[in-house]
Amino acid sequence: MTTGKVTGIIANLVMVEVNGPVAQNEICYLVLGELKLMAEVIKIVGSTTYVQVFDSTRGVQTGTNVEFSGDLLEVELGPGILSKNYDGLQNDLNKLDGIFLQRGVSSSPLDADKKWNFKPIAKSGDTVEAASWLGEVGENRLPHKIMVPFKMEGSYTVKEVKPEDEYQIYDTIAVITDNNGTDHNITMSQKWPVKLAIKAYNNKPRPSKLLETGVRVIDSLNPMLEGGTGFIPGPFGCGKTVLQHALSKQADADVVIVAACGERANEVVEIFWEFPTLVDYRTGRKLMERTTIIANTSNMPVAAREASVYTAMTLGEYYRAMGLRVLLLADSTSRWAQALREMSNRLEDLPGPDAFPMDLSAIIANFYARAGIVELNNGKPGSITFIGTVSPAGGNLKEPVTESTKKATRCFYALSQQRADSKRYPAIDPGLSYSKYNEYPEFQEFMKSQELESWVDNANLMTNYLQRGKEASDQINILGDDGVPVGYHVHHWRAELIDFVVLQQDAFDQIDQMCPLKRQKYMVEKVLDICSAEFDFNHFEKVGELFKKLINAMKQMNYSEYLSEDFRKYEGEVDILVSEFQGSTLTQASV
Amino acid sequence: MEITATFQKKYTQIEDINKATCTLRATGVGNEELALVGNKLSQVVKIIGDKVTLQVFSGTEGIFTDSEVVFLGKAPTMKVSEDLAGRFFNAMGDPIDGGPSIDGEVREIGGPSVNPVRRLQPNKLIATGIAGIDLNNTLVAGQKIPFFADPDQPYNEVMANVAMRAKADKIILGGMGLTNDDYLYFKSVFQNQGALDRIISFVNTTQNPPVERLLIPDMALTAAEYFAVDKNESVLVLLTDMTLFADALSIVSNRMDQIPSKDSMPGSLYSDLARIYEKAVQFPNGGSITIIAVTTLSEGDITHAIPDNTGYITEGQLFLRKDSEIGKVIVDPFRSLSRLKQLVIGKQTREDHPQVMNAAVRLYADAANARTKLENGFDLTDYDSRTLAFAKEYSNELLAIDVNVVVETMLNKAWELFSRHFQKEELGLKQELIDKYWK
Ligand SMILES: Nc1ncnc2c1ncn2[C@@H]1O[C@H](COP(=O)(O)OP(=O)(O)OP(=O)(O)O)[C@@H](O)[C@H]1O
Ligand SMILES: [Mg+2]
């Protein structure tokens, strides 16, 4: 193996004089007495290799010995990943001793002793290739496929698959033979370098199915699709993390991977403490059972922060290859970009805009491109839906990370300071935000097949009302309440009705936080009915009077159990209010 | 700071000197190791081959190219023990109160971070009596939160008030670029309240060299970890002013030819600040570290890199603003935020707390719109006028920093204001709360 000696240190960038071959992104270790500090090769100039150290470099000297591993930065894949809390390098945080994270310590990502009940899928004589399903174990009762390792190239013939029984991850569960007649033992564990995409699938169609999130302003206005990409930029304190947590709790996915990338430890702790008690309302199972957390909080080493998003994506790709629907969340991708910036500055690379690396856009685009819905080699679908947050400096959406991410994604959920300041949560700005999927014919087809054919039309209608409302209130602000026709006030208040009843949603209210599609459809149609009703107001003050009462009653509906007695009571109030002004009643909810 | 060492390497040839750093040729030197340059405390910040760059904490004035450089073979440390209580130190950890030096266990400062799975979710409400905080932006032990304030605002006074009422076992003051007057103010508050035995101060005043400030947070937090982890105590750490700390960071990084990012701050500002603020934690053994900091703004600009990065790190911020209408300083309900409040409000406080808080702020926002209308010369509706009347009383009786009552009184006051100015359905509150609390 290649070894080397340290020749320079600038924070966590270390220069190493090497005596043999090294690879870009190869892992090496700085030997500091008893400690071995992990590092990754990021640049090679002649015999000087630049490495980024995933730990504090305190005490490293010129002459410190370096051992190269021959491997790239890899994760270990196998049953037991779900419910785990990893750091950015896939150390199992629960296995580390002590209150503090000591330098140079590591722990194994999987549990070597745990027994899994393996059931064969393939049989001897089958032709298989990388990612073919050989068998299955139940991981938190999810069907976890044991696959031909992704690194294995070409095709193989199955010689033997072990019968149903209890096995540990390093036991051989199958033997496959290559074209030269050589046998390969397959276990339930495999490794994969995180910076390379796992490409073991047939093709990547366009997304078409709605991913239900229970967040009205997303599902009903700017829908996310299974295998889609989106991002949430917003100034600090506007609700990025609260929104992502809501998605991680409520979204209709089989597996949820949350990458806390350079953000607050207390926010991760919230997940640690809440998820084991919260229940997925669709399956009745504890949320933790479908969730893996990658916690590389802001005080953990910066280089590992960069690795953490790749670790998360690779775990996602692993579960996608099993035909599962994965939701991947990263908070915040800006911290990842900043980690890249810190390093490129130390390398004295030519800086791009705001001192970010020149190729930032490409790095972000490549990363988002790893998400998506795929048709696996066996014809079955699997998906990774990826939603990242972006923390733009100074809240300015014209900065490089926001702009690059906008190009790489299809949904844009821009949080506005103004909405957050007036506590209009979630603060997704209806004017700026969009989902390109609303324009996808295959999405409209899908909604039709779900008997939700007016979904996209309704979204467009609401967007129009909101837009007109904004224009009207701008005019009112310029010309004064009685300087505009009463109709302007109607426009303004229609938008307010949509805002308060559909857009705003209390993430901390037990009932309001999760709004299933059926309920969304009902409320949206109710709101649109009111918006399309012709009212006769003789004075602008009357408009606000009615709409405030409507908003109040409909908010009470949102806070009540769907179709409960209370819900009906407030609905009755809404109908009376409307008929008083208009003389017709609105349609009733059907069970 | 411990500066004796058994193993010392000496050099007498310095090649480059600038305001904050100097460079010499030396071998066998570790990164972040301490050194004395002509008796000035310094730390290794960069090594290229045999060229070692030292950051000189007290500034490089008076350093000669042939000044003696002694490497101490270790990173910065301090001694911790119960004896720290009641004492005042400078940035190096040397006593400045005339008392003896501290005996105790030697610890490296700036130590490792807490394993997130070993943290407890913060859960203890910290009552301050100030409604702008307790009602709208409730603090929780283990939280980190700064005051965002213009330099002319009484942030140190408010912070001292909060500290005195917070019922912490220990209060650790980390003063960075503190004016001598403010230093004496803190000292007298601590003394007058009979709290001196609970206080530990690490102070760098405007009279001390700026780069020394860089040591203050690590000193304060190493002491805090001793009391919170070893002694299971609740520790409140006050850091003022973190803007001056960040300025010191930029002095050093600019001297080291790093490419500055926004507002000439180092590209690593976010990580540098996070390393400090993330020391706030609730430990499972009952000990906790809560950080209340001050970030001074320049003309209220929170988009500047220092407050901006801070806001992205801390769990909210408390915004002080002078309300000219009532002539008092208030905790601005729009820009202020405590992100941990939902862990305690409505749980450790009365059930109506969350909704009352939000409704009041919404009405206050409506009042702001009404004021804009007024300023633009438009007529106000009846509702507009009522929001304005509400806002004035709300500001005076709840938001002002001179309020000192318990949370229940704050909630009752809010309901009183609601019913004085509004109809039930104008509030958008849950019906069951209205039935129970409407006055
Ligand atoms: N849907 C919501 N319902 C109620 N309150 C909300 C909602 N969204 C956000 N908030 C409030 O806003 C605060 C800040 O939200 P959050 O922590 O998600 O912001 P953020 O955008 O992630 O900020 P940062 O960039 O600093 O991490 C929350 O603590 C909460 O008080
Ligand atoms: Mg956040």
Structural class of chain A: alpha+beta
Q: Would you identify the regions of chain A where 5 or more consecutive residues have pLDDT less than 50?
A: 584-591
Quaternary status: heterodimer
Summing up helix and strand content along with how strands pair, one would put the structural category of chain B as alpha/beta
General shape of chain B:
elongated
> How many separate structural domains of chain B?
3
CATH names the topology of the largest domain in chain A as Rossmann fold
**Percent helix range of chain B:** 25-40%
Please state roughly what percent of the residues of chain A sit in beta strands, choosing from under 5%, 5-15%, 15-25%, 25-35%, 35-45% or over 45%: 15-25%
Mean pLDDT of chain A: 94
What CATH architecture label of the largest domain in chain B applies? 3-Layer(aba) Sandwich
Beta-strand content estimate of chain B: 15-25%
Number of strands of chain B: 21
- Span between termini of chain B: 60 Å
Nearest-angstrom radius of gyration of chain B?
Answer: 25 Å
* Gross CATH architecture of the largest domain in chain A: 3-Layer(aba) Sandwich
* Alpha carbon gap, first and last residue of chain A: 69 Å
DSSP helix fraction of chain A: 25-40%
